[in-house]
Every structure is written in C-alpha cells, then in structure tokens.
C-alpha cells in the first residue's frame, strides 16, 4: 500500500509539472524495479539482472524519486506517503526515509545540493518554490 500511495503522488507531480506553466524539467529517477518471479529459476535470473543494473550504476537504491530542474536551480525530491485515514477511520503511518535514502540525503547535504521530502503536491510545490526552482504563484 505504501508504494502505491507514493506512485500516485509521483504521477500527480509529474503530470502537474509537465502540463503546468512552469519552465521546469521533472525527471524521475528509477531506483528500483519490479520483476515478478514465479519459481527459483526466475528468482535467480531476476537477482542476476538486479545485481547487473546496480553494478553498472543504472539503479541507485536510496536516490530521490525525482530531480526537478529549472532555469536557476534544481532539487532532488523524495516522495513519501502522507498520514491519512482510510474509509474505516484507520490511520496510515506517514512514510519514513530508509537508511539508503538518509545516506543519499547526507550526500546531497555534503555536496550543497538541495534535497527535500514531500508528502503531498502542495508540499512539493512549496519545496520547489523555496529552492527557487519555480518562481511566482
């Protein structure tokens, strides 16, 4: 469920940024891939493929979900599930950064590269404005 909420948020942000009035380039960063495996042979093949992608630098576990570039600035944007209540009133826990994501954030901080976590479109838009990627209203 957690991944699903984050995928929906990423789709919304990508759609709004590509269709919106801002001169920005949002680029998703694939840092994982789902490959179904039905038996041990398929699991071995998937494992070999994933190892190869990581070894070749094509997947970077922990990398932010999006990089958004504007005329004067850029921002790594990690998307997480917000705290919500479902139809039955059950509260979902807000998404947390994994150890790999925390390390990626530290690397960004050391390099002086802006990095933010967003839980909603409004939070993402505020972060983009705060870092000068998007100007105005």
Mean pLDDT level: 89
Provide the gyration radius in Å: 17 Å
Q: Kindly state the number of beta strands.
A: 6
Name the strands of the widest sheet in spatial order.
1-2-3-6
Number of helices: 4
SS strand fraction:
15-25%
The structural class is alpha+beta
Query: Which consecutive residue ranges, at least 5 long each, have pLDDT under 50?
Result: none
**Known CATH architecture of the domain at 2-29 and 64-130:** 3-Layer(aba) Sandwich
- Fraction in helix: 40-55%
In CATH's first tier, which class of the domain at 2-29 and 64-130 applies?
Alpha Beta
The third-level CATH topology of the domain at 2-29 and 64-130 is Trna Endonuclease, Chain: A, domain 1
Describe the model.
- The chain has a four-stranded mixed beta sheet, with helices on both faces. The protein has a two-stranded antiparallel sheet with strand order 4-5.
- The relative contact order is 0.18.
- The two termini are 33 Å apart.
- It has helices at residues 2-19, 40-55, 99-111, 121-130, and strands at residues 25-28, 66-69, 74-79, 84-85, 91-92, 115-118.
- The chain is of the alpha+beta class.
- The model has no long low-confidence stretch (mean pLDDT 89).
